[in-house]
Amino acid sequence: MKKSFIYLFLVWAISMIIIGQANTYEIEGSFSNFFLNRNHNESIFSERFEEARSKIINIMMETGVPSISVAVAKDGRIIWEEAFGWANREKRIKATPHTMYSLASISKPITATGLMILLERGLIDLNLPANNYLGPAKLVGYEGKALDATVSRILHHTSGLPLHWNFFFENEPYRRPSMDETIRRYGILVAEPGEVYQYSNLGYGILDYIISRVSGKSYEEFMKAEVFVPLGMTHTSIQIGPGLEDYAAQRYSPEQTPYAFYDFDHRGASAVFSSAHDLVQFGMFHLKNHLSNQEVILKDETIERMQQDVDPKLPDMLYRLGWRVEDNDYGYRSVSHKGGMKGVSTSLKLIPSENLAVVVLCNGNHGKIYNLENEILAALLPKFAQNFMAKEKKSEDKKPEIFSPPSSLLGNWTGKIKTYSGIMPIEFVFQNDGDVHVKIKNQFETLLNNVSLKDQFFTGDSYGEIETEDARRTPHTLYFVMKLRGKRLSGYVCAVPAGGLSSYIYLERKSKDKKN
Fold it and tell me: For residue 228, how far is the Cα from the chain centroid?
């Protein structure tokens, strides 16, 4: 009886492979949907991923993240796609390669792709000021000129816009303002355009607004019609599109509780949902693979420009037009982007020389997820594996830096925080012993923590409150980033985690009197 059962099982398994259907099974009771590869060559590749599979399962057991979905493409073909765990634990919905995950910042190269379509049609000039394409609310230059904040510099994160993120949960009364209102509040240049790279979600929110204004369609409609449908991305949308609700993965907290659904005032930076299957197809398009099921929405030279173009004032920067590009990523040139926020860890990496694309998506947030893309690449590229393993073995013990203020900082500095709703006086005192005292308006005096000065940029964080309606939604601390400009410090102070809400700050040195 036992032999008959084994024989029948083998016959069934072989027939499943022959007809090309997916065989699913569970690991540890709930972990995996395993999709068999559909030809002999793909099976050969699949064998190389056994160690990566084991690491995925171990990471899930160690961290408790609900699910991980991966996809790998080489030479214009998907050679591995597999999902592990639960897309929705409460509803007992298993993850598959077609489950739609919140992508967070991988939305940026997708939005940039949409913008470049308008460039090719002659509807946008990247060298013109972004203000040329905005509505009543315009960018304001507190440092530098708004005229120099071009569309290209917003794509590069070199426009002078500060750090920004802002979430709006469906279970709270506060709702997303209009884009004009967001720009009025936070569309401020706190550094000269082209002076420094500063990652800004608001910049890509402004780009989605530009797409809408120039195309005459909503950002959601334009991206669906001009990017997702032509590229065969049927399980991709801005937020969760109508009819796709059953495919969306629930986002989970570190305590394994589901987050309420949330929106942004920077959808172009963070709001795309996509599956591992769709996202690896997007990757193949940017590898110029010309798949039969994809339309040519961009010329090859435009795709190449997105991976090469830099701000001429910052020629060594890694961030291009929507992509991060490293010339020596464990021995290879890579084109990539990561995403991370509440309930989200995602990565997309392309190795153009090997015609490889790797996608890793997760509906939880944990740092260990981001290394999986390299584990997968190591399974395919011996040189990558050798360099990756060598770096992993190196000791990374770093001693904390002790802040020692230069004489140019010592003493009293007074100034103002300029919020969208008013002015807040502020005072800094830099002491010989490295302590920095901060006093804002009538708030308690506090010490600055994690103080650093590098390349004339001063950073640190402290307790305190920004007195605006949106910052006061939740308790927050303050993160300062200022550049030393002779006898002046200027930059921004960010309310965290009320959102990453940044206001302009400037201080002038008044004396060398010091507290002891």
Answer: 19
Q: Distance between CA atoms of 29 and 74, rounded to whole angstroms? A: 32
Cβ-contact 160, 489 below 8 angstroms: no
> What DSSP line would sit under 304-339, residue for residue?
HHHHH---TT-TT-SB-SS-EEEEEETTEEEEEEEE
Structure tokens at 167: 């979430």
Helix residue spans in 75-160 (DSSP H): 107-120, 151-156
How does DSSP assign 405-442, residue by residue? --TTT-EEEEEEEEETTEEEEEEEEE-TTS-EEEEETT
Could you write out the DSSP letters of every residue in 193-252? TTS-----HHHHHHHHHHHHHHHSS-HHHHHIIIIITTTT-TTEEESS-TT-GGGBPPPB
What are φ and ψ of residue 63, in 5° steps?
A: -95, -25
Are residues 387 and 330 in contact, defined by beta-carbon separation less than 8 angstroms? yes
Task: Please give the Cα distance from 73 to 82 (Å, whole number).
Answer: 12
How many angstroms separate the CA atoms of 334 and 351, rounded?
5
**Which domains can be identified in the chain, with CATH numbers?**
104-326 (3.40.710.10), 411-511 (2.40.128.120)
φ, ψ for residue 424, nearest 5 deg? -125, 120
In the numeric block, the tokens 């401020």 are attached to: 188
- Give yes or no for a contact between 376 and 52, defined as CB atoms under 8 angstroms apart: yes
Q: Which residues contact 198 (CB under 8 A, 6 or more apart)?
A: 157, 158, 160, 161, 162, 163, 191, 481
- pLDDT (tens, 9 = 90+) of the chain, 516 residues, equals 444 444 444 434 433 333 333 333 233 333 333 333 333 344 455 678 998 999 999 999 999 999 999 999 999 999 999 999 999 999 999 999 999 999 999 999 999 999 999 999 999 999 999 999 999 999 999 999 999 999 999 999 999 999 999 999 999 888 899 999 999 999 999 999 999 999 999 999 999 999 999 999 999 999 999 999 999 999 999 999 999 999 999 999 999 999 999 999 999 999 999 999 999 999 999 999 999 999 999 999 999 999 999 999 999 999 999 999 999 999 999 999 999 999 999 999 999 999 999 999 999 999 999 999 999 999 999 999 999 887 766 545 556 678 889 999 999 999 999 999 999 999 999 999 999 999 999 999 999 999 999 999 999 999 999 999 999 988 999 999 999 998 999 999 999 986 799 999 999 998 654 444
Q: How far is CA 473 from the centre of its chain?
A: 24
